[in-house]
Oxidoreductase
Amino acid sequence: MAIRVAVIGTGAISRVQHLPSLRALGDRVEVVAVADLSAESAASAAAEFGVASWYTDVAELLERERPDLVTLATPPIAHKEAAIAALDAGAWVLSEKPPTLSLADYDEIMAHEGENGPYAAYIFQHRFGSAAERLRTLIAEGSLGRPLVAKCDTLWYRDPSYFAVPWRAKWATEGGGPTMGHGIHQMDMLLSLLGEWTDVTAVMSTLARETETEDVSFAVVRFASGALCSITNSLLSPRETSQVRIDFEHATVEVEHLYGYGNAHWTWTPAPHVAPETAAAWAPTDDVPSSTHVPQFTQFVDSMERGERPRVSGADGRRVMELAAGMYKSALTGRAVARDELSPADPFYASMPGGDPVGATARIHAGTIRSARA
């Protein structure tokens, strides 16, 4: 029997990714309803994708349709309430990034999961391309040796008009700037490869855009393995690129793309002591791109059918939220932050600006946006 799916939010990401990706799953799923605060948007999406029902109220949709799965394609501020409502109605949840606005919100959603489901997971599609999957296997096998040095860059460009959308780059509605809304994709892929992080030192500024939050962030992260990584997130970079590079004992592996990669975007460089036939076996044989949600949606439905917790949920999905919180705390307090500091007693557990959004904005803006205007 097909899994009954409801899609909440019918804006661009829903029409470009969620609904086409669900359609690609064929008869494994049936999209029974969509919902949006805008009746016009909900109705047009339903017509475009052949969905029988549309709603403007999530509670009404859940009560009438009883979906097995709810996908969330809404602004970040709406994730927590909709996820909890869906879980309480017995539906599994697959939500857009960032998962929530804070670690506290993330944990509150987890508290509504069942012991054996339903579960909530989050869309970080770059984990699921074939090259990243192959690299993850090689790391687990130890084939490349220890990871030593890494970098993770999300260098994008957003002009001032981008921030005219009311919820963008505000603490209360997006949770942060490019650290939360943009670079979090590459950061999640990095963490899925390198594992647990232990401490972070970060700086942030608002250099050129009229926002509450940062438009640039830098960080140095130490991993439990001992590896060191630099992270850069920018919305001010005219030559846009997304890059992850990891130097292992036996190889450098790197990817450069923009919003999605295929195998051709990856470079596998062996160290001089590695035999050519050994290096030749590293590259993936399949070529599954990360530019669509289809691979993650497929694996999520697989998990539903097996009754297993999906990837990028629970502790696995929480790790990147911890890193973001650690970066904000470090930048706003001016010191290194250990991962184990971010307990429920810490103000940065409850909100990325540490419970003081006005003060956070002032510290991030200090000497940057004002001097740029001058």
